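RETRY 2/3 - previous attempt timed out on the joint model. Re-submitting the same 426-residue input unchanged.
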Amino acid sequence: MEPMHAQQIIEAILFVIGEPVTLKRLGEIAAEVGTAEIRQLIEALNAEYVTSGRAFRIQEVAGGYQLVTDQHVAPWVRKALQNPRPDAVSKGALETLAIVAYRQPIAKAEIEAIRGVDVTAALDTLVERRFVRVAGRKESPGRPFLYGTTAEFLRHFGLRSIEALPTLQLPTVQEPPGVPAGLHGQ
Amino acid sequence: MTYEVDAGIYEGPLPLLVELARLNLIDIFLVKLVELTTQYLLTVKASGADLNTLAEPLPLLGSLMAIKARGLLPQPPKAEEDDEVPISLEELERRLKEYEQFKTVAQLLAELHALQHQHFARSSPGTPQAGEAAAVPPPPFDVGLPDLMSAFAKVLTRASAPVYEVHVEPWTVEMKAQELRVLLTVRRQVSFLELFTPQQSKLELVVTFLALLELMRQRVARAIQERLFGDILIVAVEPV
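RETRY 2/3 succeeded.
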């Protein structure tokens, strides 16, 4: 297949889907093109968007590729969508989110031990906005919910994967006494 | 939102101050609670009325007060049992460092979020998206406290029932909250205006409104508007 044609296919798929499409899925749809080639084609497309001054960009986000508009046109796009407020997330919710992102799956009490305040409201907000979900229950008295981040979180924060977050400098904390070992990780 | 305070000998986030006071690492008697409350009241006046943000420092200020009050009481010679495991300074330091890191990440997340919201993905009408690209119809949005207050001010002006001398308080916030709870369980959503009738006395109206605010605070109910200038609806918050 001609590269030009393959590039059009990829561009068309990303345009129509409008949300992150995995490389695997792209490979299944455009079966004639190899995944390595698809990756190159996407890079070429992105380069072309920049050099020819187009309004599009292809982002690698939440484990897939997503066609989005460039930030320079954001004010007008927002106006067109009648989307008046870029909904900010409160500092408290963000701190809670950061803890969940690094320590997932984590129970509410464990988050509170780190932040030192009640996080009920913050967690509610995060669950409501689908950045965080209940990812299971802890096998300890009361079987509290364990929370983890979602693909929606990655999408809204432009992260390729959870590993794209910067590594924390502190070594992993030892378990506080009273919590049986072996509960972390799924 | 971490609430920052300036207490003379201490300047920084309120949660840390409470933690330091609790561990006796800061002399609570040097902290002027009057100043903290004044600052808080100023914040309340300045920041409009976001219930969540304003509510957060309250329990902390309360526990500071409790710590100070406890300090004023004569101490028993020796507590019978001391089940509170004392935290070593190193442990405290480690915890603070850990928290600092998460705060840094939170800051980064805020930037990433703002940045990502400069990019819009295509929103096809067929597949509604929860993301930044608003699908039709736009989702209902929260009604703030000022709007609720002004809606309630209208209710009060149409209150026509005469005022009687009442000796026993016929309505309590708890009673009204319970009624509202039942109503919301049955109906899922009610119009704000429907909660109040002109026949009700001002006292009953006020108690009902307080009960509503209490339910909102407990996140049992939420006030939304489906469109600009639309009716305010009170909806039951789905349990997670």
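The radius of gyration of chain B is 24 Å. Closing ticket.
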